[in-house]
Write a structure and sequence with these properties.
Blueprint lengths: L1 H36 L3 H13 L3 H13 L3 H12 L4 H13 L7 H13 L3 H13 L11 H12 L4 H13 L8 H19 L8
Length: 212
Amino acid sequence: MVGSKLRAWFAVALSLVSCLCQAIPSDDHARGVLAYQRGDVVAAMSALREPARAGYAPSQALLAFILDRSDFSEEAFRLYRDAAAQNDAEGHAGLASLYFAGRGVAKDEKLALEHFSKAADLGHAASIETVANAFLKRQMGLDADGPDGAAAVAALTRAAGQDHVASAEALARAYQSGRYGLAADPAQAANWQARAVAIRKKQAAPVAKVSK
């Protein structure tokens, strides 16, 4: 009986230690984020190093972002790659931007699109717009007027859903003239044009000041 109680106690103790160890990377990451937000890049990097080494994806991605902006793109590439391997949205997006620009790694638009698409699927706002713009501007091998019109419509619809006005306007034109594999539909065209107008008004509206 005593042995069973001791084993149970040790199991609980080990569980608590494990929880504490797991909490450390997120705590260090939070300190790194706060330091970065107040403009103390040195303190931010110092706080992020340990959780990044421990494999904490958010710290890897943020540290990579800081390093890339400090012209340490090769190290940034390795950190973004490690974060992306854990399916971290910022990791995929950062890795994609390096492949697209050829910073820290050989330029590869196919891999850039692959990682932008993965980040977009994870809800990364900037990547959602990047993929939509790629269809509209014929970048990274994409073309909304090409054979993959359905994917273009899906990408534009997703971007318009987060107030990307160019996507809403493109969908309005597509439904008006029957582009991207869509059947002409004046009602849908009017809906998307109204959506584009609403987005523009929203973006032009002054930001309300918070009273102290």
